[in-house]
Amino acid sequence: MNLTHVDDNNRAKMVDVCCKDDSFRVAVASGKIEMSQEAFEAVVKNNIKKGPVLQCAVVAAIMAAKKSSELIPMCHPLMIGGVDCDIEQLDDLPGFKVVVSVKVDGKTGVEMEALTATSIALLTIYDMTKAIDKSMRISDIQLESKTGGKSGQYRRN
Amino acid sequence: MNLTHVDDNNRAKMVDVCCKDDSFRVAVASGKIEMSQEAFEAVVKNNIKKGPVLQCAVVAAIMAAKKSSELIPMCHPLMIGGVDCDIEQLDDLPGFKVVVSVKVDGKTGVEMEALTATSIALLTIYDMTKAIDKSMRISDIQLESKTGGKSGQYRRN
Amino acid sequence: MNLTHVDDNNRAKMVDVCCKDDSFRVAVASGKIEMSQEAFEAVVKNNIKKGPVLQCAVVAAIMAAKKSSELIPMCHPLMIGGVDCDIEQLDDLPGFKVVVSVKVDGKTGVEMEALTATSIALLTIYDMTKAIDKSMRISDIQLESKTGGKSGQYRRN
Amino acid sequence: MNLTHVDDNNRAKMVDVCCKDDSFRVAVASGKIEMSQEAFEAVVKNNIKKGPVLQCAVVAAIMAAKKSSELIPMCHPLMIGGVDCDIEQLDDLPGFKVVVSVKVDGKTGVEMEALTATSIALLTIYDMTKAIDKSMRISDIQLESKTGGKSGQYRRN
Amino acid sequence: MNLTHVDDNNRAKMVDVCCKDDSFRVAVASGKIEMSQEAFEAVVKNNIKKGPVLQCAVVAAIMAAKKSSELIPMCHPLMIGGVDCDIEQLDDLPGFKVVVSVKVDGKTGVEMEALTATSIALLTIYDMTKAIDKSMRISDIQLESKTGGKSGQYRRN
Amino acid sequence: MNLTHVDDNNRAKMVDVCCKDDSFRVAVASGKIEMSQEAFEAVVKNNIKKGPVLQCAVVAAIMAAKKSSELIPMCHPLMIGGVDCDIEQLDDLPGFKVVVSVKVDGKTGVEMEALTATSIALLTIYDMTKAIDKSMRISDIQLESKTGGKSGQYRRN
User: Which of F99, F117, F114 has the alpha carbon at shortest distance from F146?
Assistant: First the structure.
C-alpha cells in the first residue's frame, strides 16, 4: 500500500478530497493517563468538590478538536458538527481514561480530530496535576471506531 | 499536596509566575507509536527515499511546541529559545520513538511544550500513515528530564 | 428549559448539528462604548482626517467574526459568507455604537459571530483611545435580530 | 491629547515599547450579563450540580487573555504571568458579574488582556444559555484598576 | 470598475458569498526567491542529503494555505480540499521557484490561499538560509491560473 | 557556510538562542505590488476618499508581524515591541511599495517579522483589488536593513 500524503516528487501534500461526497461520519478515540495514587486522589477529590481539573480537560478537548487542522500539517479543515468528551475514573491504574467522539457531515473523516482532542485532554490533566507528580504517563491513544466515508466502518477489536 | 491551578473559589486559574526569576530551563519528553509491519515498512521506505513523513512530523512538533499555551488552558505563554526533535526507528515494536527537547530562559518550565510537541509529532505520523493502518497506538508519552527552575532537576528512572 | 451544551454526565459538549439542513442565516448584533468628551473628540477628529481608529475597529470586527469558534469554547466552526460592520457616532453619549451583521449558509446560526465581532470592535476602540481615557465603558452588547434556522426569526423589541 | 496609535502619515501603528523597563503590572476588569429569570435559574442550578457553564466561562476567559494580541490589532504580545477569573451571582439583576485579574512582569500593561478575557467569559455564558434566552445583554465592561508602569495607578471611582 | 470590498459607508467589508453555488475551483500561484551562489549551493546540497529546508517550506506552504483567512482580513474561511506544493531548482537565477495549487469545492475562489501559501514557502526558505545570505530577494508572486466560479477561467499569458 | 536550522541528524531544528543576551534590534523590509492602471486608480481614489484598502493592508501587516512564528516553522516567538508600516504610491509602476519596520528588545532578530508583515500587506492589497485585476505581481520583497544582535548591522546596497 502507498502513503497517500506523498506526491510524485516525494513531497508532502494535502490529499484532494474535493470530489468526495459529503457523508455523515463519526470517529471515537480514547487514551489514558497513569499517575501516582497521591495525584489521583487529588484529582478525584477536586472533582467531588466541583473543581475544575476534569471540566477544564473536557473544554480543552473540544477546543483542540477544532484546532486539529492547524496542528496536523496535512489534516483538512472541517466544519465539525459535534464533540462529546467523557472522562472515566480508573481506580486500579490509578488514572483516567478520556473518550472523545467527533461528528461531521463532510468530505473527510474526523479520526484526527478525535485523536487530537483526546491527546490534549490528557495533556491538560497532566498540566494541572504535574506539581504533585511529574512521572505521569499518557498511553493507549487509539481510534476506537469510525463510521461513514468510502473506507467504511472500523471498530477496534 | 494541593492542586496549584485551582483558586480559593474552586475555579481554574493560571498560576502567577511574575515573581519568579528567569532561569535557563530544559525539558525532554518522549513517546512512541506502534504500528503494523506493513505501515512501518512504508514509513521506513519513505524515509530512505528522502520522503516527507518523518520530516513533516519534526516540523509539526516544533510548531506545536510554540502553540502549547493556546492548547493547554492553564499553560503560560513562553518565548521558547530552542526546540530539537528526533525520531528513532524501533524495528522490534515496530514503530517509532519521538524525543523532543525544548529550551527556554524564562520564568516557568517547558515540560508542557515538550510533551505537546511529542504528542503532535506522533499524531502527524498517524495521520500520514492511517490509510494503511488505522489501529496504530500512541503510548508512553512522558517527561524524560527537566532542569532549571525552583523545583530543580527531574530525571525519569 | 434545559441547557443545550451540557451532556448527561454534566460535562460541556459541542451540540451535534450534523443532521440540520443548511439554511441561509443572518444575525445582527450591536454594542456601545461610552467615553469622555476629550477622548470622543480625538476619535472624531481622527476619523475626519482619514485616521485609522474606526477603520481599524472595523477590520478587527471582521477578523474576530472568523475567530469566534476559537474563542467561545462550544461554538461551531462555520464558513462565514459575509460580514458588515458599521460604527455610528453618538454625540450625546458621547461615544460610538458598533453594529455587525454576519451571514452564513450553514447548519447553525451566527449570533456568536456577530456578538464576538461587536465586542472586539469596541475593545479595539478602547485600546486605541485608552491613553486619553481609561474609564471608558462598553455596554449594551446584544443581539438585534436573527433570521433563518429552526428556531426562526428573532427581533429585539 | 493625542492618539498614541496613529503615526505621522495618519496610519495605525503598534506603539514602540522597547525602551520601557520591565515592571510588575496588574489590571483588573469586570463586566456583567443580564438575563431572564428562567435563564438565570438554569445557570445557577447547573452550577450547584457541578455543571460546566461557569467553569467553561472561566477557562474561556483565561485562554482569551492569552489571545488578546491576536484579536486587538495594535495590542502587544506579552508573556502573561497569571490570570484569575471570578464569577459572582447577581440575584437582583438577575445575571452574573465576571471579574478578571491579569498580572505581568513586562514592558506594557495588561488592561486589554483583562478586558478581553472579561468579554469572552460573558460571551461564553451567553453562548451556553442562548437556547433559553436570546435577549441577554452584556454591559459595564470596564477597567476596575491597574497598577505598575509609567502611567502609574488607576482605580475606578 | 468598483472595489468589491468597500461598503456604502466607505468601510471594509467581507463580501457576501452566501448566495453563490458551490463549484469546483482550482487556483495555481507561483513565486521565486533569488539568492547568492553560496546560499543556493547550501540548499541544493541539503536537499540532496535528504535535508529539511525544502521539505519544511512545502509543509509551511500547506499550513499557510489553511491560515489565509486569518491573515488576509477580508478573505473568506474555506474548507480547502487539497494543496500541492512543488519547488523547482533554478540554476541560473540562482534560486528556487515555488508553485502551489489549491483546490476547493466551495462558494468562493482559492487564489488568496495559493498566493499566501507561495509567499510563506518562500519566506521559509529565506528564514532557513538567512545566516548565509541576508540579501535574498522574493519576486514574481503571481496567480498562474484559476478555474471555476462565476468569473470563469483565468490563465496568465 | 552551514545551514543553521539543520541538526546533526539532518532534521529541521529551532536554533537555540537561550544564551544570547537581550539587545535592541530593528529590521526594515520592503516589497512592491505592480498592477494595471485601472486597479491603481481605483485604490488611489479609494485612499483619497478615506477608503479602507491601504488602511486595511497596514492593519494586516501589523497583525502578521505578530503571527510570524506561527507561519514560519523555525521562527522564534518574540515579544515585538513596535511595528510601523508605510505604503508609498508608485505612479510610474503603477503600484504600491510597502515598508515595514519592526523593533524588539530580545534575543533574536525581527527580519522574518518585517518580511512576513510586508508580504501580508501586499497580499491584502491584492485581495481587495483582485476583482479589477488578477494579473497583479508582488515583487522585490527584501530586507532593507537590520541593526542589533551578534551579526551586527546590515544595510542593503
Answer: F114
Minimum-distance CB partner of C73 among A63, A80, A87: A63
B31/B122 Cα distance (integer angstroms): 8
Q: Is the pLDDT of residue B51 over 80?
A: no
CATH superfamily of F29-149: Molybdopterin cofactor biosynthesis C (MoaC) domain (3.30.70.640)
Chain C CB contacts of D42 under 8 Å are: 1-3
Q: In this structure, how many other beta carbons lie within 10 angstroms of the beta carbon of residue F74? A: 24
Q: Which one of 3.30.70.3270, 1.10.10.10, 3.30.70.640, 1.10.418.10 gives the CATH number of domain E23-155?
A: 3.30.70.640
Do residue E52 and residue B58 have CB atoms under 8 angstroms apart?
yes
Question: Which residues, given as ranges, of chain D have pLDDT below 70?
Answer: 1
Q: D36-149 has which fold? A: Alpha-Beta Plaits (3.30.70)
- pLDDT classification of F1: cutoffs 50, 70, 90: low
Q: Rounded to an integer, what distance in angstroms lies between the CA atom of residue D81 and that of residue D105?
A: 7
Residues of C with CB below 8 A from E14's CB?
A: 62, 65, 80, 82-84
User: What does the alpha-carbon distance between residue F40 and residue F22 come to, in Å, rounded to a whole number?
Assistant: 43
Amino acid at F90: L
User: Which triple of cell numbers denotes residue F157?
Assistant: 546596497
Span C98-127, pLDDT tens digits: 999 999 999 999 999 999 999 999 999 999
Tell me: the pLDDT tens digits for B52-110? Answer: 899 999 999 999 999 999 999 999 999 999 999 999 999 999 999 999 999 999 999 99
Classify domain A33-150 by CATH number: 3.30.70.640
Q: Do B11 and D103 touch (CB under 8 A)?
A: no
Cis peptide before E77 (omega within 30 of 0): no
- C-alpha span between C83 and C120 (Å, rounded): 14
Instruction: Give the three-state DSSP class for B120.
Output: helix
Residue A142 burial by CB count (10 A; 0-12/13-18/19+): exposed, middle or buried?
buried
Taking domain C23-149, whether its CATH number is 3.30.70.640 is answered by yes
**Considering only CA atoms, which of C152, C40, C145, C130 is closest in space to residue C87?**
C40
Mean pLDDT of B40-58: 89
Residue with cell 529590521: F27
What pLDDT shows up at residue D2?
A: 76
